[in-house]
Write a structure and sequence with these properties.
By secondary structure, this protein is an alpha/beta fold. The chain is 43% helix and 16% strand. The protein contains ten helices and eleven strands. Strands 1-11-8-7-5-6 form a six-stranded parallel beta sheet. Strands 3-2-4 form a three-stranded parallel beta sheet, sandwiched between helices. It has a two-stranded antiparallel ribbon with strand order 9-10. Strand 5, helix 7 and strand 6 form a beta-alpha-beta unit. Helix 1 packs parallel to helix 10, helix 2 packs across helix 10 and helix 6 packs across helix 10. It starts with a strand and ends with a helix.
Length: 284
């Protein structure tokens, strides 16, 4: 089994990104800037935001964080996002999800300018993705594809099974894998006999949020498993795949933590850098 080491790959790619930012700063006289917006104090969300800020600093990117209380009104959040859209020094805006229940996620995701949408969730950017047009790719699917490329995995002709159908991971990663020539099956909570589908898979992406759901009796020998799940069980982080159970049958396997997570953060930085270049080239 070969470990798909997202931590190592992201560290290497962040060093490359740091060099690119240094070159761009000399041309444009300022670094890229990412604005992070967090509503409430959910521990996992706070941890994600801190991780993105740390990573931004490491690559020489400027970032600021807008922390809003749990009971923030829609009007207050609208005003903040509108101001960030209009701020010429801001290149990327990341709205940390989930939002409190009284705030409409779709409204605020789409209020962010499509040209500052560092997460790739805006309806126009997602539409471009599904039509195979140049666009911002959602960070986690983009990180998965980067990991696949780094390990020279050619998915053309493979049967890829995606477990989970969210607009954040499941749908876009299915599209990106399909664009590479894979045959796609998307499973979800209503799928009958999940094992029937996973046993046929050459590659499985687990993105359903159920701890250690995938076990070795559900896969064929040599399967590639990419685990997006982050679940806390008895104080320990585990994925949607049972790592210890699968390591003897999988050909490639991501760890949790240290697999897809660091690649997602890297992709956020990479997206912000790409938006920064487009932003400044348009203004020059």
């Amino acid at each position: 089994m070969i470990l798909l080491d997202g931590k190592h790959v992201s560290e290497q790619r962040n060093l490359e990104l740091k060099d690119k930012i240094e070159v761009a700063k000399a041309i444009y006289h300022r670094p890229p800037k990412l604005s992070l917006v967090l509503v409430g104090d959910h521990p996992a969300s706070l941890s994600y935001v801190r991780g993105k800020r740390r990573a931004s600093k490491l690559v020489g990117m400027e970032s600021d964080t807008h922390l809003l209380p749990e009971n923030t009104t829609p009007e207050t959040l609208r005003e903040l996002i509108t101001n960030l859209n209009q701020d010429e020094t801001v290149d990327g805006i990341l709205l940390q999800l989930p939002l409190p229940k009284h705030l409409d996620e779709d409204e605020f995701i789409n209020l962010i300018s499509k040209d500052k949408d560092t997460d790739g969730f805006h309806v126009v950017n997602q539409g471009n993705l599904y039509q195979t047009k140049p666009t911002v790719h959602p960070a986690t699917p983009k990180g998965i594809m980067t990991l696949i490329d780094t390990y020279n995995i050619d998915v053309k002709g493979m049967h890829a099974v995606i477990v989970g159908r969210s607009a954040i991971v499941g749908f876009p990663v299915a599209r990106l894998l399909m664009d590479r020539g894979a045959t796609i099956t998307v499973c979800h909570s209503k799928t009958k006999d999940l094992t029937y589908h996973t046993k046929q898979a050459d590659l499985i992406v687990m993105a359903v949020g159920r701890p250690e759901l995938l076990t070795k009796d559900m896969v064929k020998d040599g399967v590639i498993v990419i685990d997006v799940g982050i679940n806390r069980v008895d104080g320990k982080l585990v994925g949607d795949a049972n790592f210890d159970d699968l390591k003897d049958v999988a050909s490639y396997l991501t760890p949790v933590p240290g697999g897809v997570g660091p690649m997602t953060i890297h992709s956020v930085l990479e997206n912000t850098f790409e938006l920064y270049l487009k932003h400044l080239k348009k203004d020059n």
